[in-house]
Amino acid sequence: MLKLAVCVSGGGTNLQAIMDAIDNGAITNAKIEVVISNNANAYALERAKSRGIEAVCVSPKQFAERAEFNKALLEKIDSYGVDLVVLAGFLVVIPPEMIRAYQNRIINIHPSLIPSFCGTGYYGLKVHEGVLARGVRVTGATVHFVDEGTDTGPIILQKAVEVLQDDTPEVLQRRVMEQAEWIIMPKAIDLIANGKVSVEDGHVRIAE
Ligand code: GAR
Q1: Prediction pTM value
Q2: pLDDT in tens, 130-166
Q3: How far is CA 109 from CA 72, 87, 88, 166, 176, in A?
Q4: How far is the CA of 177 from the centre of ligand 1 (A)?
Protein backbone atom coordinates (compact mmCIF):
# COMPACT_ATOMS: atom_id res chain seq x y z
CA MET A 1 0.00 0.00 0.00
CA LEU A 2 1.54 3.30 -1.13
CA LYS A 3 1.47 5.83 1.70
CA LEU A 4 0.80 9.40 0.57
CA ALA A 5 1.34 12.84 2.05
CA VAL A 6 -0.74 15.41 0.17
CA CYS A 7 0.49 19.01 0.42
CA VAL A 8 -2.01 21.81 -0.19
CA SER A 9 -2.34 25.58 0.11
CA GLY A 10 -5.90 26.45 -0.84
CA GLY A 11 -9.25 25.07 -1.87
CA GLY A 12 -8.16 21.49 -2.25
CA THR A 13 -10.21 20.40 -5.25
CA ASN A 14 -7.34 18.19 -6.42
CA LEU A 15 -7.16 16.68 -2.93
CA GLN A 16 -10.90 16.05 -3.22
CA ALA A 17 -10.41 14.31 -6.58
CA ILE A 18 -7.73 12.08 -5.01
CA MET A 19 -9.90 11.20 -1.99
CA ASP A 20 -12.87 10.45 -4.26
CA ALA A 21 -10.72 8.27 -6.52
CA ILE A 22 -9.48 6.26 -3.52
CA ASP A 23 -13.07 5.85 -2.28
CA ASN A 24 -14.46 4.76 -5.65
CA GLY A 25 -11.57 2.46 -6.55
CA ALA A 26 -10.10 4.53 -9.39
CA ILE A 27 -6.93 4.63 -7.27
CA THR A 28 -5.93 1.29 -5.78
CA ASN A 29 -3.09 0.38 -3.41
CA ALA A 30 -2.78 3.89 -1.97
CA LYS A 31 -3.76 5.59 1.27
CA ILE A 32 -3.47 9.22 2.39
CA GLU A 33 -1.53 9.29 5.68
CA VAL A 34 -1.58 13.06 6.13
CA VAL A 35 -2.61 16.32 4.48
CA ILE A 36 -0.19 19.19 5.11
CA SER A 37 -0.95 22.85 4.44
CA ASN A 38 1.29 25.91 4.71
CA ASN A 39 -1.87 27.92 5.23
CA ALA A 40 -3.91 27.36 8.40
CA ASN A 41 -7.07 28.62 6.69
CA ALA A 42 -6.88 26.36 3.65
CA TYR A 43 -10.29 24.80 2.97
CA ALA A 44 -8.37 21.69 1.91
CA LEU A 45 -7.70 20.98 5.61
CA GLU A 46 -11.47 20.82 6.24
CA ARG A 47 -11.92 18.46 3.32
CA ALA A 48 -9.32 16.12 4.83
CA LYS A 49 -10.76 16.28 8.35
CA SER A 50 -14.27 15.54 7.08
CA ARG A 51 -12.90 12.26 5.66
CA GLY A 52 -11.13 11.44 8.94
CA ILE A 53 -7.70 12.11 7.45
CA GLU A 54 -5.04 13.75 9.61
CA ALA A 55 -4.68 17.41 8.60
CA VAL A 56 -1.83 19.61 9.83
CA CYS A 57 -0.47 23.08 9.17
CA VAL A 58 3.24 23.84 8.85
CA SER A 59 3.52 27.53 8.05
CA PRO A 60 6.58 29.68 7.36
CA LYS A 61 4.91 32.19 9.70
CA GLN A 62 5.61 29.85 12.64
CA PHE A 63 9.39 30.23 12.13
CA ALA A 64 11.87 33.11 12.22
CA GLU A 65 14.01 31.67 9.39
CA ARG A 66 13.08 29.96 6.15
CA ALA A 67 15.63 27.23 6.90
CA GLU A 68 13.74 26.36 10.09
CA PHE A 69 10.48 26.05 8.18
CA ASN A 70 12.19 23.85 5.58
CA LYS A 71 13.53 21.58 8.32
CA ALA A 72 10.15 21.38 10.07
CA LEU A 73 8.34 20.56 6.82
CA LEU A 74 10.76 17.74 6.03
CA GLU A 75 10.60 16.38 9.59
CA LYS A 76 6.80 16.44 9.51
CA ILE A 77 6.68 14.51 6.24
CA ASP A 78 9.37 12.06 7.43
CA SER A 79 7.39 11.41 10.61
CA TYR A 80 4.56 9.81 8.61
CA GLY A 81 6.85 7.41 6.75
CA VAL A 82 5.28 8.21 3.39
CA ASP A 83 6.31 6.72 0.04
CA LEU A 84 5.04 9.56 -2.15
CA VAL A 85 4.57 13.29 -1.59
CA VAL A 86 1.77 14.74 -3.70
CA LEU A 87 1.81 18.50 -4.30
CA ALA A 88 -1.83 19.33 -4.97
CA GLY A 89 -1.82 23.11 -5.30
CA PHE A 90 1.03 23.54 -2.80
CA LEU A 91 2.34 27.05 -3.43
CA VAL A 92 5.61 26.69 -1.54
CA VAL A 93 9.10 26.33 -3.03
CA ILE A 94 10.14 22.80 -2.10
CA PRO A 95 13.38 22.85 -0.09
CA PRO A 96 16.37 21.27 -1.90
CA GLU A 97 16.99 18.90 1.02
CA MET A 98 13.47 17.54 0.63
CA ILE A 99 13.95 17.06 -3.11
CA ARG A 100 17.15 15.09 -2.41
CA ALA A 101 15.49 13.00 0.31
CA TYR A 102 12.47 12.18 -1.89
CA GLN A 103 14.02 11.86 -5.34
CA ASN A 104 11.36 10.73 -7.84
CA ARG A 105 8.96 10.45 -4.90
CA ILE A 106 7.42 13.94 -5.12
CA ILE A 107 4.82 14.70 -7.79
CA ASN A 108 3.22 18.02 -8.68
CA ILE A 109 0.20 19.11 -10.70
CA HIS A 110 0.72 22.18 -12.86
CA PRO A 111 -2.21 23.83 -14.68
CA SER A 112 -0.64 24.13 -18.14
CA LEU A 113 1.04 21.97 -20.75
CA ILE A 114 4.67 22.16 -19.57
CA PRO A 115 6.98 23.64 -20.91
CA SER A 116 4.46 26.39 -21.71
CA PHE A 117 3.32 28.79 -19.00
CA CYS A 118 5.39 27.31 -16.20
CA GLY A 119 8.37 28.23 -14.06
CA THR A 120 8.82 31.09 -11.62
CA GLY A 121 5.76 33.33 -11.33
CA TYR A 122 3.38 30.90 -13.07
CA TYR A 123 1.03 29.47 -10.47
CA GLY A 124 -2.71 29.34 -9.93
CA LEU A 125 -4.72 31.93 -11.88
CA LYS A 126 -1.54 33.59 -13.21
CA VAL A 127 -1.05 30.59 -15.49
CA HIS A 128 -4.47 31.03 -17.07
CA GLU A 129 -4.00 34.81 -17.34
CA GLY A 130 -0.79 34.11 -19.28
CA VAL A 131 -2.54 31.65 -21.56
CA LEU A 132 -5.31 34.16 -22.39
CA ALA A 133 -2.82 37.04 -22.85
CA ARG A 134 -0.87 34.98 -25.41
CA GLY A 135 -4.02 33.79 -27.16
CA VAL A 136 -3.12 30.12 -27.39
CA ARG A 137 -5.96 27.81 -28.46
CA VAL A 138 -4.97 24.79 -26.39
CA THR A 139 -3.81 24.55 -22.80
CA GLY A 140 -4.09 21.76 -20.24
CA ALA A 141 -2.40 20.28 -17.20
CA THR A 142 0.73 18.29 -16.37
CA VAL A 143 1.67 15.89 -13.60
CA HIS A 144 5.43 15.63 -13.17
CA PHE A 145 8.09 14.53 -10.74
CA VAL A 146 9.70 17.38 -8.83
CA ASP A 147 13.39 18.06 -9.31
CA GLU A 148 15.62 21.00 -8.32
CA GLY A 149 14.13 23.33 -10.97
CA THR A 150 10.70 24.95 -11.10
CA ASP A 151 8.36 22.72 -13.14
CA THR A 152 11.34 21.03 -14.84
CA GLY A 153 11.08 17.44 -13.58
CA PRO A 154 10.19 14.34 -15.63
CA ILE A 155 6.66 14.50 -17.03
CA ILE A 156 4.29 11.68 -16.05
CA LEU A 157 0.95 12.64 -17.65
CA GLN A 158 -0.47 15.56 -19.61
CA LYS A 159 -3.95 16.33 -20.89
CA ALA A 160 -4.96 19.06 -23.33
CA VAL A 161 -7.93 21.39 -22.85
CA GLU A 162 -9.43 23.79 -25.39
CA VAL A 163 -9.30 27.56 -24.76
CA LEU A 164 -12.59 29.21 -25.77
CA GLN A 165 -13.11 32.66 -27.25
CA ASP A 166 -14.73 34.37 -24.28
CA ASP A 167 -12.85 32.63 -21.46
CA THR A 168 -11.93 34.53 -18.33
CA PRO A 169 -9.01 33.22 -16.24
CA GLU A 170 -11.52 31.82 -13.73
CA VAL A 171 -13.65 30.06 -16.35
CA LEU A 172 -10.56 28.57 -17.99
CA GLN A 173 -9.11 27.49 -14.63
CA ARG A 174 -12.30 25.60 -13.85
CA ARG A 175 -12.32 23.87 -17.27
CA VAL A 176 -8.66 22.85 -16.90
CA MET A 177 -9.44 21.41 -13.47
CA GLU A 178 -12.54 19.52 -14.61
CA GLN A 179 -11.20 18.22 -17.92
CA ALA A 180 -7.56 17.62 -16.97
CA GLU A 181 -6.31 18.06 -13.39
CA TRP A 182 -8.93 16.00 -11.57
CA ILE A 183 -8.39 13.19 -14.08
CA ILE A 184 -4.62 13.01 -14.51
CA MET A 185 -3.63 13.55 -10.87
CA PRO A 186 -5.56 10.50 -9.57
CA LYS A 187 -4.45 8.53 -12.65
CA ALA A 188 -0.77 9.29 -11.99
CA ILE A 189 -1.11 8.22 -8.34
CA ASP A 190 -2.82 4.98 -9.36
CA LEU A 191 -0.05 4.21 -11.89
CA ILE A 192 2.68 4.86 -9.30
CA ALA A 193 0.83 2.90 -6.58
CA ASN A 194 0.65 -0.06 -8.92
CA GLY A 195 4.33 0.00 -9.85
CA LYS A 196 3.76 1.15 -13.43
CA VAL A 197 5.96 4.26 -13.42
CA SER A 198 9.74 4.36 -13.68
CA VAL A 199 12.24 7.09 -14.50
CA GLU A 200 15.08 6.32 -16.89
CA ASP A 201 17.56 8.95 -18.04
CA GLY A 202 15.28 11.73 -16.84
CA HIS A 203 12.25 10.43 -18.74
CA VAL A 204 9.21 8.62 -17.41
CA ARG A 205 8.29 5.18 -18.69
CA ILE A 206 4.78 3.86 -18.08
CA ALA A 207 4.29 0.10 -18.18
CA GLU A 208 1.30 -1.24 -20.16
C1 GAR B 1 -4.60 23.93 -9.20
O2 GAR B 1 -5.10 24.51 -10.38
C3 GAR B 1 -3.16 23.50 -9.39
O4 GAR B 1 -2.91 23.00 -10.67
C5 GAR B 1 -2.43 24.80 -9.14
O6 GAR B 1 -3.10 25.35 -8.03
C7 GAR B 1 -4.48 24.98 -8.09
C8 GAR B 1 -4.90 24.42 -6.74
O9 GAR B 1 -6.28 24.16 -6.69
N10 GAR B 1 -1.03 24.57 -8.87
C11 GAR B 1 -0.07 25.39 -9.31
O12 GAR B 1 -0.28 26.41 -9.92
C13 GAR B 1 1.35 24.91 -8.99
N14 GAR B 1 2.31 25.68 -9.71
P15 GAR B 1 -6.92 23.21 -5.59
O16 GAR B 1 -6.42 23.68 -4.22
O17 GAR B 1 -8.38 23.41 -5.73
O18 GAR B 1 -6.50 21.80 -5.88
Answers
A1: 0.97
A2: 999 999 999 999 999 999 999 999 999 999 999 999 9
A3: 23, 7, 6, 25, 11
A4: 8
